[in-house]
């Protein structure tokens, strides 16, 4: 699927993400090195650090937040209405065209 991701410098990237590798969006961002190493995915995708926070433009493509995600976001910085933890979003074909911006560190 094709995703549009705006990095922390404001640069827009159009990237291809595989739906058959069990990846989540945080891992995609990491594998394309869209942010410096060590600044995303600090907790390893356990919804415990918020380093993978993103702002989602087309939220209607996503499922509801799970409880862990909701709780972590309630404690995180820079949270907006459309904040999500990208480690809690599996890459699936439903997400074709998803647009998101990586939140500040
Ligand atoms: Fe830690 Fe997503 S990687 S909350």
TrEMBL record:
InterPro entries: 2Fe-2S_ferredoxin-like_sf, 2Fe-2S_ferredoxin-type, Adrenodoxin-like, Beta-grasp_dom_sf
A Pfam family that the UniProt record links to this protein: Fer2
Stated name of the protein: 2Fe-2S iron-sulfur cluster-binding protein
Biological classification of the source: Bacteria, Pseudomonadati, Bacteroidota, Flavobacteriia, Flavobacteriales
Segments forming a coiled coil: none
2Fe-2S ferredoxin-type domain mapped to chain residues: 1-105
Keywords of the record: 2Fe-2S, Iron, Iron-sulfur, Metal-binding
Cofactors, names only: [2Fe-2S] cluster
Similarity section: Belongs to the adrenodoxin/putidaredoxin family.
SUPFAM superfamilies named in the record: 2Fe-2S ferredoxin-like (SSF54292)
